[in-house]
Amino acid sequence: MSVTMKTRCVDKRGSFFKLIDTIASEIGELKQEMVQTDLTVEDEAPDWQSLIKNMGNVSPEKNDVKSCPRDSGYDSLSNKLSILDKLLHTHPVWLQLGLNDAEAMEILQTQPPGIFLVRKSARLQKKVISLRLSSDCGSCLKEFAIKESTYTFSLEGSGISFADLFRLIAFYCISRDVLPFTLKLPHAIAAAKTEAELEEIAQLGLNVVLEKAMHKCILKPLKGHIEAMLKEFHTTDGSWKQLKENLQLVRQRNPQELGVFVPTPDFVDVEKIKVKFMTMQKMYSPEKKVMLLLRVCKLIYTVMENNSGRLYGADDFLPVLTYVLAQCDMLELDTEIEYMMELLDPSLLHGEGGYYLTSAYGALSLIKNFQEEQAAQLLSSEARDTLRQWHKRRTTNRTIPSVDDFQNYLRVAFQEVTSGCTGKTLLVRPYITTEDVCQLCAEKFKVANPEEYRLFLFVDDTWQQLTEDTYPQKIKAELHSRPQPQVFHFVYKRLNSDPYGAILQNSNDSAA
């Protein structure tokens, strides 16, 4: 009988996800129709020239910008917006893939040197940076082709690669490399000091307007119905009852019993996080929900690192996230995670947002399957299979990277004569040097004499010791961008160890 019930549950789950896929497909078709309709109705076509020309009119100094209500959790975050933040929030303004040559020229010829647009060139059949040049350069506009590979973006003629387009543009806003000068953000974007200001600016653009209109027209009225269906589904199959009981069980455990051996958010921080989750529940846009989840996860990382002065990897983060979700004690987070996983645009599953969404799903799975005698550290094979199926189903005809491929993560193998070769996924940001990575490896692998160990690159059957001032993430991006894929490994090992030891026997565990 239990087998029959399980089969029915699986069938029901399959039917439910088919319904979600149908809804997502219809939303995609509607969005496409909206785009086509907008392009065919001449009297509603946007005034591209005024799009950037009028940017000065929404300068934060000149406008009464209505700031969104902010919860107290923002107090713990930096108020300074980075160039990358500004680019992420305002991409509808500068990312205009549908513009042709004449439209780009019309917009940029009235702008000061350095102002740019990213669009797709019909002639080159690839993305380009259309850059406004100075008057003494002859032509007022020049295009710089963007080279894309499975994992990286770079400008043609440059040896510097980036994990995504946003980081590429951010870099060229501060360093010219192969450009005649650095890129320049429109004044309103450069002067913006809050995310609310950036969102207002972003609304001028046509397009971890059409999009907002689609969400408002379709998802907003459907949100309550979808949530009710999810609640009914989980109540019927008993999973919410199990989750409620296990939340109570996990909350009674101290962090160490859950496999947490790093600093955790205190009561005040947990309350801030809970406020963010409650705000998330009110949103109907999956993109905005993911942005809030991203802030929560970054807040947790900040607490972990600031209270210890150390850098932590992904294997430390998951138990802490599990502990925090249990302390929040919100059953509704289960449906929130499903809502985002099923309705988020697959292209947004790349990068930190997608990684943290997967982490949140994994943390809830640990709680659901928590047993009295176990620590919440390892995902069950069932949960891992579900995640793999979700990746495959949500990214049909697309490529989604594993955790090793994300910009801020690096897989490092640890080779020791006595224990063979093991590996860990470490949080390594692009500006972290090899010297810093070696210090992190010494802590993670509990090496007593770190002066005897160094970081090596194993590629093409050769070993290269990385100097202390090199950047492992840059090396990884460069290797991924090569025309012919190569198997390579970052290995932390003794200086005098056998270079052809365990690494060749355990290559699948240490691939970067």
UniProtKB/TrEMBL annotation:
Compartmental location: Cytoplasm
Pfam families for the chain: RA, VPS9
GO cellular component terms given for this protein: cytosol; endocytic vesicle
Keyword Cytoplasm on entry: yes
All residue ranges annotated as the VPS9 domain in the record: 237-376
GO molecular function, one term: guanyl-nucleotide exchange factor activity
Domain Ras-associating intervals: 406-497
SH2 domain ranges (all copies): 94-187
Keywords, ordered alphabetically: Cytoplasm, GTPase activation, SH2 domain
UniProt cross-references to CDD domains, sorted A to Z: SH2_RIN2
Gene3D superfamilies on file: SH2 domain, VPS9 domain
GO process annotations (BP): signal transduction; vesicle-mediated transport
Family membership noted in the UniProt record: Belongs to the RIN (Ras interaction/interference) family.
This protein's name: Ras and Rab interactor 2
Organism: Ficedula albicollis
